[in-house]
């Protein structure tokens, strides 16, 4: 990557860091481009060199949070195809999401944090990939053949994400809670004997390809207004 492009990418990330801090503190509705520029220590015009509006800036911020989640899941899959199994896959996603307040707000569609950005999450490419993952899990025997499977799994997982809002006795150790998620999914939704090794490997490869495509999509959306790309 040329040095100029590296500098612009680094500056874009600095702007996104500032936007993230402000959104979590004030909420999307109250943050202005002027606030972001001040927080990042740059001029307002510099922000507009990268993103043409407040909405495109903060959409890029959500994409960057999704990159962090996707990269970590992909890294685990590349280390072990067994990580594709739902109880392991969902455990990993749970722990990563709970550690990142922006990902957590996205998952819960938190209006206080996200404001109108909440609506942009519906029908996103990430949702399509998520649906494809669960379809493959059901088709290839990773999950039980049961009515309304997607709803059942989603309802169970949402409980794990929300429980600490209602029960102060929930363990603070996220790794422990992740293991509880894994046990719940395995005991409730997976067959006693899952797919063979060949199916595990081929499915992990297919999902990994989808995740890499998703990463490319996110990166393009984040840096699509990079000055280097627009003028070079």
TrEMBL record:
Protein name, UniProt field: TetR/AcrR family transcriptional regulator
Every HTH tetR-type domain range: 9-69
InterPro entries cross-referenced by the UniProt entry: DNA-bd_HTH_TetR-type_CS (IPR023772), Homeodomain-like_sf (IPR009057), HTH-type_TetR-like_transc_reg (IPR050109), HTH_TetR (IPR001647)
Family matches, as SUPFAM superfamilies: Homeodomain-like (SSF46689)
UniProtKB keywords: DNA-binding, Transcription, Transcription regulation
Species of the source: Saccharopolyspora erythraea (Streptomyces erythraeus)
Superkingdom assignment: Bacteria
Signal peptide: none
Pfam families, per the entry: TetR_N
